[in-house]
Amino acid sequence: MKENHEYFVVDRLAVPAVLLKTLSVKKRLEANPDMNVSEAVKREGISRSAFYKYKDMVFAYNSLKAARMVTFFMELSDVAGILSQILKIIASCGANVLTINQNIPMNGKTNISISIDTGRMDKSVEHLEKKLNLLEDVHHLTVIINQ
Fold first, then answer.
1. What is the mean pLDDT of residues 89-116?
2. CATH classification code of 65-146
3. Dmax (CA) of the chain
4. Domain boundaries in the chain?
């Protein structure tokens, strides 16, 4: 019989302590690859059986981080070097550019879309978005999460 999974977004205040501790153990293990499960659950104050019961059922929600592919739609000034600046910022965050589409400039502005793979990013998509918005020649930026 196939299980039907149903997912919810729930405020942290409504989540039972054992689930929050399970998330903490998962984060601890991810941050410390040399640590074993026994040590991690002991530090969080839950049993190994509770951790194994819930570990594949509870995840922290961050839609921008969870996405592997994100597309940025931007309206830019038609100035030399702006695309280069954008690509340097994307690279500095550890993202991999998948596609770039740029329209022909009209009235001193151009539209561009850049799709990136976020799988190896060492910064958040929110951080990348803020850095791109700081560029003087970026007039409008929309982020699309491709899930």
1. 95
2. 3.30.70.260
3. 64
4. 12-61, 65-146
